[in-house]
Amino acid sequence: MGIKLYYTTVTASREVKSQQAEVIRILESKSIKYELIDISVGGDVREEMRSKSGNPAAIPPQIFNEDQYCGNYEMFSEAVEADTVEQFLKIA
To answer: Where in the cell is it found (predicted)?
Structure first.
């Protein structure tokens, strides 16, 4: 599978929950297949996300194409506005 979405099922942040839900909704509306990776299962997965993104403070959602970093929610949102989601996800 190509697109990987790092997310969390355990958060008190409404902002994180709504951002994750919006990314998933948009990917599904565009029929883009993706794999969900839950960082709440353990610190190793969270550290993997942060290492791959190059940001030691990264929070979900973080989006990758395989191991290639695409961006965070803000970057994804900008791509949606510009209608460049496929290029953002590196699947164009």
So the answer is: Cell projection, Ruffle membrane; Cytoplasm, Cytosol; Nucleus
Structural contact between residues 36 and 48, judged by C-beta atoms closer than 8 angstroms: no
Q: What DSSP letter does each residue of 8-64 carry, written as one string?
A: -S--S-HHHHHHHHHHHHHHHHTT--EEEEEGGG-HHHHHHHHHHHT-TT--S-EEE
Q: What is the pLDDT of residues 52-83, one digit of tens each?
A: 999 999 999 999 999 999 999 999 999 999 99
Round to whole Å and give the CA distance between 41 and 79: 29
CATH of domain 3-80: 3.40.30.10
